[in-house]
Amino acid sequence: MNSLYGIPLSPFVRKVMLTLEYKRIDFTSQPLFPRDPSPEFRAISPLGKIPAFADATLAQPLLESAVICDYLECRYPQPSIYPALPEQRAQCLWLQSYADTSLMSVTASVFFEIVARRLLRKGDTDTARVAQIVAAEQPPVFDYLETQLAPAEFAVGTEVSIADFAIATQFINAKYAGIEPNPQRWPRLSSYLQRLYQLPVINARMGADQPLLIAYD
């Protein structure tokens, strides 16, 4: 049985879930928080990181969402989420890396302040910090994405790819925090995200998130 470890509201766990669901791969979800102290989880993820993925063929569980998604693509190649053309594949991998790092740094922080603090009862939102992120830290990241996205339905090529899942999952958490790109300033990015949110696999995953957003109230 395929097992995915990590709370689904993690953008990196969600990225793997989108890959599994798009490829119609059966799996069980083990909704563990990062750094869970249980010996069972630490045996799977010694560093306490999520996501972690295990199946019957792996000698040891896989860590890191990009590694897991690449493994799933190799093991279950259809439908593919990586472009066949080398230049498109390279751009796809770059956008995934950018989403996992630069974009994550300006979306995860607002999600933590506005949503996660409430869910986990970690105190009040630091409104000054949120204002700083929105005013000064997010715009350069959004500006770059505005220049990188093709004027088409998907980020790279003519089919959904891991780049789309990587970008969408970060913006989904920002959306849950009430933060979205201004369509006047970032029209291409804003339109692109609205199209992604309507994709059946992403729309269904966002629907599955909703009970979790109130689970700790």
UniProtKB/TrEMBL annotation:
GO terms for biological process: glutathione metabolic process; L-phenylalanine catabolic process. InterPro entries: Glutathione-S-Trfase_C-like (IPR010987), Glutathione-S-Trfase_C_sf (IPR036282), Glutathione_S-Trfase (IPR040079), Glutathione_S-Trfase_N (IPR004045), Thioredoxin-like_sf (IPR036249). Keywords: Transferase. Coiled coil: none annotated. Residues 85-217 form the GST C-terminal domain. Gene3D superfamilies: 1.20.1050.10, Glutaredoxin. The keyword Ion transport does not apply. GO terms for molecular function: glutathione transferase activity; maleylacetoacetate isomerase activity. Pfam families: GST_C_2, GST_N_3. This is Glutathione S-transferase family protein. It comes from Ferrimonas lipolytica.
